[in-house]
Specification:
The chain is an alpha/beta fold and 342 residues long. The protein has twelve helices and 14 strands. The protein has helices spanning 4-11, 15-22, 32-45, 56-59, 78-91, 111-114, 128-134, 161-174, 203-214, 230-242, 255-267, 301-316; strands at residues 64-70, 96-103, 119-123, 141-144, 155-159, 180-185, 187-190, 197-200, 223-226, 249-252, 277-282, 295-298, 324-327, 330-332.
Length: 342
């Protein structure tokens, strides 16, 4: 059975190019020679678009073209890269081909660019309602690392940040810490049509505030938010230090942000963990190599990507009911936290 992959290989072009030529994409810039070569191969190999078959028995061997939409956050947080790599590596195990990879704010995401896709995997805080305004042919959308409010038609893969935050706080309390700060970043949901950004509540922050209030330990001056990344972690920690009264522990929303936190503490002569304990989220590769080695919540980004592929394939094979999968996390204890010193 001839597939788009076969044609692309023979023509020495990408599967995306073959797909766009077969669908007469007016935005595609390709030479007449290449176009003719592909169309000749289509006739020579007797290629038939499988998606037009309606017999259910044939559906099991159908090949699907999918798209990947994500925010350009990989340079800030490798966590998002691990999700994408999980998606890409798992597609090879299924008849799924990524023919289009789009970055919000940098790629043209329109009804034309999405029209030929059988399904979408959307990574990060991206407005699914806006996506549906231009991708209206089906509900084959899987959202990763974001829980869309009031949208029960899409599949979702998230990590248990609520449970993880509670575990982190309880562990610090067991070590005698009661004055605990939270350093995080503001969550922004990005539009793909309007280019608007709407602020959202980060579940790590909201859970932290809720638990600390319940325990009578909440201190609003210990809640600091800015952007995500080392620069913000650094500046927010400097602000915390200048306020005068330092907490005995800091919970940080992400490892890259925590790198900035550690730097600011080190420059101010504040020892980690003897003076201040630090714990964060993600467990990026660098977490095990900084000094001190960073205690962190391991988030299985690669498994989130793999799960998204499996959910999308299940949808493409006929499942109608949307599913939400919450993956567990793991608290990794290293050198950056210790018992509170009296």
């Amino acid at each position: 059975m001839v597939t788009i992959k076969d044609i692309a290989k023979r023509a020495n072009v990408s599967t995306a190019t073959v797909s766009r030529i077969l669908n007469n994409d007016p935005t595609l810039s390709v030479s007449d020679e290449t176009r003719k070569k592909i169309l000749d191969l289509v006739n020579e190999l007797d290629y038939k678009p499988l998606r037009k078959k309606s017999v259910k028995a044939e559906k099991s061997i159908e090949s699907f073209n999918i798209g990947l939409i994500f925010l350009n956050d990989e340079s800030i947080d490798p966590y998002f890269q691990s999700i994408r790599l999980g998606v890409e590596s798992t597609c090879h195990q299924f008849p799924l081909t990524i023919v289009s990879t789009m970055v919000v704010g940098k790629s043209a995401i329109t009804s034309e660019t999405l029209s030929d896709l059988d399904g979408l995997i959307v990574i990060g805080d991206i407005d699914t309602k806006e996506i549906k305004e231009i991708y209206y042919k089906n509900n084959n959308i899987v959202v990763v690392d974001y829980l869309p409010p009031n949208d029960s038609d899409v599949d979702v893969v998230i990590s248990d940040f609520e449970g993880a935050t509670k575990q982190v706080i309880n562990h610090l309390l067991d070590l005698g810490h009661e004055e605990i700060a939270f350093v995080g970043g503001k969550g922004l949901v990005h539009g793909v049509v309007s280019e608007k950004m709407v602020e959202k509540v980060d579940v790590r922050k909201s859970t932290f505030e809720k638990v600390m209030k319940e325990k009578g330990l909440y201190n609003p001056s210990y809640i600091l938010e800015e952007d995500w990344g080392p620069a913000s972690g650094y500046s927010l920690t400097q602000k915390l230090i200048k306020n005068g009264r330092m907490p005995s522990a800091i919970v940080v929303g992400s490892d890259p942000t925590a790198l900035g936190v550690l730097r600011a503490l080190h420059e101010s002569g504040i020892n980690v963990p003897n003076d201040v304990s630090v714990v964060s989220f993600d467990d990026i590769e660098a977490a095990a190599y900084v000094n001190p080695r960073l205690s962190t919540v391991k988030v299985h980004g690669d498994e989130m990507g793999r799960t998204a592929v499996k959910l999308l394939y299940d949808r493409l094979m006929g499942r109608k009911i949307a599913m939400k999968v919450t993956l567990p996390t793991e608290l990794i204890i290293r050198d950056s936290i210790s018992v509170k010193k009296e």
